Amino acid sequence: MSTDPTSGPYRWRWLILVVMIVAEVMDLLDASIVNVAGPALEESLGASSVGLQWVIGGYALTLGAGLVLGGRLGDRYGRRRMFLTGLAAFTLSSLLCALAPTIEALIVFRLLQGAAGAILLPQGLGLLRENFSGPELTKVFAIFGPVLGLGGIIGPVLGGFLIEGDILGLGWRAVFLINLPIGLAALAVAARFVPKKQGDRAVRVDMVGAGLVMASCALLVLPLNQGQEDGWPLWTWMSMAASVVGFGLFALQQRRTAAAGREPLVTPALLRKPAFTVGLGGIALFFAGLIGTQLVLTLFLQIGQHFSAGEAGLGNLPLAVGTAIGGAISGAFLADKIGRKVLQIGPVIQLAGAVLLWFELDGVSTGSFSIWDIAPGVAVSGVGAGMVIAALFSFILAAVDDDEIGSASGVLSAVQAIGGSIGVAVFGSVFFAQAKTGDFTAGFHHALVGQACLLVAFLAITFLLPAKGRPEEEQHGSVGPASGGVPAASGAEQGVTV
Questions:
Q1: Category of 194 on φ-ψ map: left (φ > 0), alpha (ψ -120 to 50) or beta
Q2: In principle, which of 20, 306, 444, 477 could form an S-S bond with 405, CB 3.0–4.6 Å?
Q3: Distance between CA atoms of 36 and 309, rounded to whole angstroms?
Q4: % of the chain with per-residue pLDDT over 90
Q5: What 8-state DSSP symbol labels residue 2?
Q6: Whole-number mean pLDDT of the chain?
Q7: What does the H/E/C string look like for the chain?
Q8: What is the pLDDT of residue 304?
C-alpha cells in the first residue's frame, strides 16, 4: 500500500481523522474522568485530600509543562513517529495507573500520563494539516474541534458510570483500564494507515528552556498543593518565589537563545507584545477559576452530600449543558458580531451564576438536597464560561503576527493546562480547609468568592485585548519548524477539562 500523500489526496486520510479523534479524546477524557474518584481512592488507597489534588492536578501540570516541547519534538522527529510514541506511552501509563498499589505510585503514574499526553496532543492537528488541504481541511476542523470538546465534558459522567458500575470488581481502576483496548486499537490503525513523513533534523530542541519551564511549574504547584496541609511553612513561600525567578530566567534564556541564532521553544517577540502577555495572564486566571470550581462542585456533591460517583458525574451535566449553549451562541455569531464584548459579557454571566448558586447553597442545610437545587446557578455559570471558551484564543491570537501563530497557540494551550492545575491546587485546598470542620457549604462559598475575584481580574484584562478575534481558519498555524508544531486549539476543543 502506498503511503505517499504527495502524489494526490491520500486514500486513507479520513481514517487518519478517526484515529486522531479517538486518540486525543482518550487523552482529554483522562483530564477530567478522575474527578469523581475521590471517595473510591480514599477507600482503596487511603488517599488524602492532598493526594487527590495531585492525582487530578498532576496530570494537567506535566501536560501543560511539556506541550510546547512535544510540538518541537514532532518538528524534529516527525509527527507520525511522535504520535505513535505518545500514544504508546499514554496507553502504557494508563495501565500503570490502573495497577497502582499506593496513592504515591498513582500520582507518579499520572504525572507520566500527562507527559505522554504532552507528546501526543500537539501532533494531531499537525498530522491533519499534512494530509488535508483546502475545503476538506475546513471540514476536518469543523469535526475535530466539537468532538474533542465533548471529550472534556463527558469525562466526569463516564468516570462516574465506570466507578459505580464496578465492572468485574475493578472500581476506580476501570477509569484507566478503559484506555487499553482503545489505545491498542488506535495504535494498530495509526501504525498501518498514517503515512510516514520525515521530520526536520535541522530543528534543534531547546532542552534547557524545557527544563526551566518544567522546574518553574513544579516549584509553583508543589507548595500550592502541600501548603494548606503543612501549615504554609517557609519552604512553601521560598518555592513560589523560586518559581517566579525560574520563569524570569526562562524568558531571558529564550531571548539569548534566539539572539545566538538558535531556535527557542517560544518566539521571544511574543513576550514583547503586551496584548499577548496579558492574554496569558487572562487564560491562567480564567481556567484556574473555572476548573477549580468544577472540582469543588464534584467534591461538594460526593463528600458533602454523599452522592455516589455516578450521581456526582451526572451532577456535572448542568455545567456541561450550559457551557455547550454558551459556546454555541458565542462561536456561531456573537463573537463575530460584537467582538471583544463577548469576553466581557461571559464573565458577567458567570458572576451572576455564582451569586445565584451562593443563595441556592444557603438552602441546602434546611432540607433534603438534590442536584436540581443548584442546577440553575451551575447552568448559568456554564453559559458564561462557554461564551468565553469559544472565543478567548481567537482574540489573544489576533495580537500576534501570522508567522507566530504556531508558537503562540502552543504557549496558550500550555498556560491553559497549567492554570487548571493551579486551580485544582488552590480551590481544592480552600474547600478541604472548610471540609475538615464539616461545613461543606462554607467551603463551596469560599470557592465561589475565589472564582469571583479571578473573574473580576479577568474582566479587567479583556479590555487590553484586541477588539476583533482572528478568524477560525487562521487559528491553526502553519505546520513546520517555525510553528513549534503546536497548532492552535479551536474554542470547542478547549473544553471544560481538569
A1: beta
A2: 477
A3: 5
A4: 40
A5: -
A6: 85
A7: CCCCHHHCCCCCHHHHHHHHHHHHHHHHHHHHHHHHHHHHHHHHHCCCHHHHHHHHHHHHHHHHHHHHHHHHHHHHHCHHHHHHHHHHHHHHHHHHHHHCCCHHHHHHHHHHHHHHHHHHHHHHHHHHHHHCCHHHHHHHHHHHHHHHHHHHHHHHHHHHHHHHHCHHHCHHHHHHHCHHHHHHHHHHHHHHHCCCCCCCCCCCCCHHHHHHHHHHHHHHHHHHHHHHHHCCCHHHHHHHHHHHHHHHHHHHHHHHHHHCCCCCCCCHHHHHCHHHHHHHHHHHHHHHHHHHHHHHHHHHHHHHCCCCHHHHHHHCHHHHHHHHHHHHHHHHHHHHHHCCHHHHHHHHHHHHHHHHHHHHHHCHHHCCCCHHHCHHHHHHHHHHHHHHHCCHHHHHHCCCCHHHHHHHHHHHHHHHHHHHHHHHHHHHHHHHHHHCCCCHHHHHHHHHHHHHHHHHHHHHHHCCCCCCCCCHHHCCCCCCHHHCCCCCCCHHHHCCCC
A8: 87
Which residues, 6+ apart, have CB-to-CB distance to 247 below 8 Å?
A: 212, 216
CA distances from 73 to 119, 337, 458, 486 (A): 8, 39, 33, 10
What are the grid coordinates assigned to 211, written together?
Answer: 527544563
Cell 518566539 belongs to which residue? Answer: 267
CA distance 338 to 340: 7
With 0-12 / 13-18 / 19 or more C-beta atoms within 10 angstroms meaning exposed / middle / buried, residue 48 is middle
Asked if 193 and 12 count as a contact pair (C-beta separation under 8 A), the reply is yes
Say yes or no to pLDDT of 496 above 50. Answer: no
Q: At a CB cut-off of 8 Å and minimum separation 6, what does 132 contact?
A: 13, 17, 140
Give the percent of the chain with pLDDT over 70: 89
Per-residue pLDDT at 250 exceeds 50? yes
Of 186, 155, 192, 158, which is closest to residue 22 (Cα–Cα)?
186
The dihedral through the CA atoms of 401, 402, 404, 408 has a sign that is: positive
Range name among 115-129, 143-157, 195-209 with the lowest pLDDT average: 143-157
Cβ(410)–Cβ(210) under 8 Å?
A: no
pTM: 0.86
Rounded distance between C-alpha atoms, residue 83 and residue 186, angstroms: 11
Hey, what's the cell of 296? 469543588
Q: If you search the block for the grid coordinates 464560561, which residue do you land on?
A: 385
In this predicted structure, the answer to whether residue 1 has a pLDDT above a threshold of 80 is no
Q: What share of the chain is helix, strand, coil (3-state, %, to 5)?
A: 80, 0, 20
